[in-house]
Amino acid sequence: MSKVRKSLLGLGVSAALFGATLAQADNIKVALAGPVTGPVAQYGDMQMIGAQMAIEKINEAGGINGDKLEGIIYDDACDPKQAVAVANKIVNDGIQFVVGHLCSSSTQPASDVYEDEGILMVTAASTNPEITERGYKMLFRTIGLDSHQGPVAGNYIAQKIKPKNLAVIHDKQQYGEGIATAVKQTVEKQGINVVMFEGITAGDKDFSSLIAKMKKANVDFVYYGGYHPELGLILRQSADQGLNSKFMGPEGVGNKDISNIAGEASEGLLVTLPPSFDKDPKNKSLVDSFVAKEQDPSGAFVMTAYSAVQVMADAMKMTKSTDTDKIQKALRENTFDTPTGKIAFDNKGDLKSFDFVIYEWHSDGTKTAVK
Asked: Signal peptide: which range, if any (predicted)?
């Protein structure tokens, strides 16, 4: 069991993994929905520790208009069908606020349920643009879009790397294929030769045929849209099979476990990630709080999850209400000072501004911003 799950009950966070909860009736309950199990549970840990730290800090400061926040964890395993089941359970549990989901392919169907039921949700991790293109009023996010992240990567590839033969690979999922498509479109507009645009199946372990195909096409640079378990194997197997191409991926691969999977083959991987909010001097006290709990504040979704809880709490205080319609209006009409900076939402519920940064990944799991 992860440290996150072990420490939940001491932080006003209950477990609701399709089972009974320990919720207190007088608390304002916030569902924390994301992967607790499954191949990308590490990202769920990032979201959970950020959200639960925000809940703890808000409660220590007096709560919301005298009431306490209580986080209740729901495991969707980043599976769309399970996400819908989780969303319906949240409805049945009478919860009106959600931080989550994490994977775009889970967030989109779950948000249909929440919108119908008037439940306010803020995702700290889902970046696919289609999610907020449907005119939903109860849906927000505290992270940027792949329609921005993709061009950041694509422009870097076209203007700095300038590969002769680019392969764009993806996992055929909403998030992975979406950002891969954005990268492909960006580089092609600048004359880069995309010799392969191909999908793999999430969960596959043997990528020998893909690597052989890339070697035959003389691929000298690979962009991968998806998550770290598959890319870690592709990196390791590429090194073993003599494919010396450089690789790049989105925040879904920026996890220390990719170094555990790929080993030395992860050295030099390029990754687009949110800024290192844990390095911001104004967040030092907050970072110290994470470190005191032996938690890592550097994960891509830790601070964005903290901000997701905070903006909901701030809107509750502004409106002196837990009415989700009043709160969604307050979110759109105000600016919020958070660990991820001053943030404001547009009419779609997207951030008006968010930067992605390109990092070089190292085999020890650390990263360095690319100048």
From this structure: 1-25
For residue 142, give the nearest of 10, 337, 360 by alpha carbon.
Answer: 337
What class, spelled out in words, does domain 3-144+279-339 have in CATH?
A: alpha beta
pLDDT tens, N- to C-terminus, the chain (371 residues): 444 443 443 344 455 544 334 444 479 999 999 999 999 999 999 999 999 999 999 999 999 989 999 999 999 999 999 999 999 999 999 999 999 999 999 999 999 999 999 999 999 999 999 999 999 999 999 999 999 999 999 999 999 999 999 999 999 999 999 999 999 999 999 999 999 999 999 999 999 999 999 999 999 999 999 999 999 999 999 999 999 999 999 999 998 999 999 999 999 999 999 999 999 999 999 999 999 999 999 999 999 999 999 999 999 999 999 999 999 999 999 999 999 999 999 999 999 999 999 999 999 999 999 97
The CATH architecture of the domain made up of 147-273+357-369 is 3-Layer(aba) Sandwich (3.40)
Token digits of residue 166: 């680019």
8 Å CB contact between 127 and 154: no
